[in-house]
Amino acid sequence: MAKLNKNLKTLAKQAGGSFKTVSDRMKIADRFAERLLKLNVQVRDIKNIKTGHIELYMKSRLSEEISKRTLQNEMSAIRALLRVAGKTFMANPAHEKLSNQALGISATSRDGTKVAIPETYFQQVLTSVEQKDKGVAYAMRLSRLLGLRTEETVQSAKSLRTWQKALINNEGKVRVVFGTKGGRPRDTTVLDREATLAAINDGLRYLKENNGKLIDKPSLHTAIERYRNVVRESGLTGKYAPHSLRYAYSVDVLNFHIRNGFSKQEAEALASMDLGHGDGRGHYVARVYNKVE
After folding, report:
1. Is 0.70 surpassed by the pTM of this model?
2. CA torsion sign, 8 to 9 to 13 to 14?
3. pLDDT tens digits for 220-231?
4. What CA–CA distance (Å, rounded) separates 229 from 234?
């Protein structure tokens, strides 16, 4: 299976695209190879991958309540690998058995189904996470307070000292550098200085006793899997999947900018930049991220 993993990662690079696209495709390739091993599929080269293997993989992922949008992205990456490997028939999005519809992952829109997580439910989940893994709990707090994506959350340990210094100096923003989409750093508005500083300080204390990591795993991939598994087991699934923490931050930061005198359109643009989108995506963020029950 190690040979298949290497084979898929090579194809992931050859399929081209931006740095972020290639990076994400390599992670999916790694997950695909790893999951096939767990499913007792014994193949060493993508040329031996059969339709049934991909169907089995997607069925396994669906059983974990992974969002359909995420699984659509995974299938897009897998099709790219198949295409580069010359298996163009299987790579066809309209394939009889491997189309999104046939796999049960169609009928979604980019608007998604997540909503901003209510504070009471967030605290309930956080209490459960703390009992399972305190490092994951500290990371989850930071995700909610700063609107971090999952990869940014897992890598936040690298920036805690910098963020602490910024808040001690009464700066209103912290710079998110690691794990950002497209490798683009952003300055994110801090909404609750005391709560954020407390979360950072707790995280720094934890790092001293846990190899300098919030999630002590040998690789970024396994750390992300650990984070997702723990929060999912504790209740962050469906409409309240991990991204709902980011949605809640979006609602809060939009209201923050409006309270500070900005027009609705200006506030939407600022919130979009706080989340790492361009200022031109303010309307999109307002429509998609600011959904509440």
Report:
1. no
2. negative
3. 889 999 999 999
4. 9
